[in-house]
Specification:
Structural class: mainly alpha
Largest sheet: 2 strands, antiparallel
Radius of gyration: 18 Å
Strand order of the largest sheet: 1-2
Helix content: 40-55%
Number of helices: 8
Number of strands: 2
Shape: globular
Number of domains: 2
Strand content: under 5%
């Protein structure tokens, strides 16, 4: 999850080379190879893995140390989204926006309720592996503009 753009690009290039060797296809694009294989890029895979860990936290299946990272949203009203995590207030980018605590809360709150409310971990895993987020707020998905910094452009 917490690696640089260069590391992300290297992993994706290695994944692409492996798919080209396995399928003996040197003409298709990386996206076409991913569809043929039924896999996703490493960033999406990391997001799905974090979402699985968040489900474990929310349902008391994770270890206590990891569970202490997140706070549940205390809602006294009968709203549709009672199963949300509290997004912490951040004062810095390095230890705030780039932290698992912040990104995990944002991610959990974007997962559709029909996936979050399933009864078992096995069903959740199959549904979350089919889900691809429409919008990602991490630093890897933001565009960098020289002189300005990272700009969040909606996908």
């Amino acid at each position: 999850m917490c690696h640089s753009r260069q590391a992300n690009a290297r992993i994706n290039r290695l994944h692409e080379r492996a798919l080209r060797i396995v399928y003996d296809d040197h003409y298709s694009s990386f996206e076409e190879l991913l569809i043929k294989d039924g896999s996703v890029k490493i960033h999406i895979s990391n997001i799905q893995t974090l979402a699985i860990e968040l489900y474990k936290i929310f349902n008391g299946l994770a270890n206590d140390n990891f569970q202490e990272l997140f706070e549940f949203n205390d809602c006294n009203f009968n709203l549709r989204n009672r199963r949300d995590l509290k997004v912490p207030l951040v004062k810095s980018v390095w230890k705030g926006e780039n932290s698992i605590r912040y990104f995990g809360a944002l991610l959990w709150n974007t997962i559709p309720n029909e996936i979050k409310n399933v009864a078992s971990l096995a069903i959740y895993k199959t549904k979350i592996r089919q889900w691809k987020p429409q919008y990602c707020a991490c630093r890897l998905c933001k565009n960098y503009i020289h002189g300005i910094g990272f700009v969040d452009i909606a996908n």
